[in-house]
Give the backbone structure.
Amino acid sequence: SGNVWEWVQDSYSKYYYRNSPRNDPKNSGGTEYSIRGGSWYNSSKSSRSHNRNHFKKSDSYYHIGFRLAKTF
């Protein structure tokens, strides 16, 4: 966290986590994706993995990215 905001698979819904199951909530199917973690563009207070924001799926900004992961 802190390098770029990280796109995550979850769609964004303002009250989704309040209204969803506590364990393994499913994707909300919204029109915007959640992003997590803050970026170099934000203050250090905002650069934490629990920090969330959202943007439209079609948006592109220089401070939003994604993480590649590979299983072995």
